[in-house]
Specification:
405 residues; alpha/beta; Aspartate Aminotransferase, domain 1; Aspartate Aminotransferase, domain 2; 14% strand; globular; binds pyridoxal-5'-phosphate; pyridoxal phosphate; PyrdxlP-dep_Trfase_small
Length: 405
């Protein structure tokens, strides 16, 4: 019996990032199954405070008789109320966030997929600036019928995050001329794989662009609280600016603004599968979101217990930033000593290595190098998986404890 047309289309979706990860799977280090396997420096995970979060999670894990029953699809009111306080403390929202604006999902990836089920129709295109987090290929496209239109926005200088409105517009016009209808855009801020943030001015450029073309704007802010650039240079402020902190109603119809957050990165609990959509003004969308997701009541209670301890949460976030800054400093010193170029980062557990002076300028040569590194014991994520405009880049996760040497 054949499967549905939708599922057949889904199986045809390509994601170079996920494919190279699958290729590495049997070769990665595992203390029991593969003790001599390759060190995993390719997945965007933060191991720095793993023990601390593990102990706290153990303390928070609890089941009550009431948890055996169905919970609320979009998360319990008590959890959403706590999250309202959390987002209000850390994202500086200009329009007060109400707990009814927050929708629990099974991860940020699932949140994006859920949003695209609701905001776009099959055949629509979503514009995404490159380089971008390669698994968006799945998150945006699986079962939605929506397609991605990649736009090289930071080419040729990946160090420069400033958004050129004319360049952005020219990508939209190119899509038009190819008969592709752009109905949405994703802005990942802080960016993955660049590990850098957009300024308030850049975000305003995005908002004006979204308004001009009346398209949905999805802001993926999953790395929001993993900024550390301000700890490396006292003169710098926290580089992260949430779209929620800007008067976005002045720039765009606010029903077009959607924010995604999750606990996999800043809280390093990717196995728990927790993400959120924050939507402040789109009533029909909010109603639609209440029909999806269904996080487990056990997870709901665990996260509720965790976020009830405000002092712990805020202390953890500070310690995490300090640990990221420390590890970034050590890593960049190491890279300098070994004459490896990199894109300077300020947020998140990874950075982009620039190996262009060491490898031929082809994606094939890049892949060969990547495979050689994997066979020699280190797994990186390939730049091609993030649609870097040129070959020669690898993403390195530096949020791992150093062995002391
Ligand atoms: C930018 C970005 N968005 C979303 C995700 C997915 O996160 P989750 O584990 O919450 O699905 C990731 C994971 O790497 C990411 O980097």
């Amino acid at each position: 019996m054949p499967i549905s047309k939708r599922a057949t289309e889904t199986l045809a979706i390509q994601s170079p990032m996920s494919e190279s990860f699958f290729e590495s799977l049997g070769k990665l280090h595992d203390p029991v199954l593969n003790p001599t396997g390759a060190l995993n420096l390719g997945v965007a995970h933060n191991d720095l405070l793993q023990q601390k979060i593990f102990e706290k999670a153990q303390e928070c894990l609890q089941i009550t008789p009431e948890d055996i029953n169905y919970g609320a699809a979009e998360g319990s009111p008590r959890l959403r109320q706590l999250l309202r306080d959390f987002f209000t403390r850390h994202f500086n929202p200009i329009y007060p966030i109400h707990w009814q604006d927050i929708f629990a999902q099974t991860g940020a990836g699932a949140s994006i997929n859920q949003l695209f089920m609701v905001i776009n129709d099959p055949g629509d295109y979503c514009l995404i600036p490159t380089p971008y987090y390669g698994a968006l290929d799945y998150d945006v496209q699986v079962n939605t019928g929506v397609k991605i239109f990649p736009a090289h926005l930071h080419h040729p200088d990946l160090n420069n995050m400033t958004v050129n409105p004319d360049l952005l517009e020219s990508h939209y016009q190119r899509a038009q001329s190819e008969g592709k209808k752009i109905t949405s855009m994703i802005v990942t801020n802080p960016e993955n794989p660049l590990g850098r943030c957009y300024s308030a001015q850049d975000i305003k450029v995005f908002l004006s662009f979204g308004s001009k073309h009346q398209i949905h704007m999805v802001f993926d802010e999953i790395y929001a609280l993993s900024t550390y650039g301000q700890l490396l240079d006292e003169k710098k402020e926290d580089p992260f600016v949430s779209v929620l902190s800007l008067p976005y109603k002045d720039f765009i119809d606010p029903t077009l603004i959607h924010v995604v957050y999750g606990l996999s990165k800043d809280f390093a609990i990717n196995g728990f599968r927790v993400g959120f959509i924050i939507d402040q003004f789109n009533g029909p969308l909010k109603s639609a979101l209440c029909r999806g997701a269904y996080t487990s009541t056990i997870t709901d209670r665990l996260i509720f217990n965790l976020f009830s301890d405000e002092k712990w949460i805020d202390g953890y976030l500070l310690e995490n930033r300090q640990a990221l800054a420390e590890s970034y400093k050590k890593t960049t010193q190491f890279l300098k000593t070994h004459d490896v170029d990199y894109i300077e980062a300020e947020a998140g557990p990874f950075m982009l290595l620039d190996l262009r002076k060491y490898v031929e300028p082809t994606f094939e040569a890049n892949k060969l190098l990547w495979r050689r590194l994997l066979d020699s014991g280190v797994y990186f994520a390939q730049g091609v998986g993030f649609y870097t405009p040129e070959p020669g880049y690898l993403r390195l996760t530096f949020a791992l404890p150093w062995s002391g040497r």
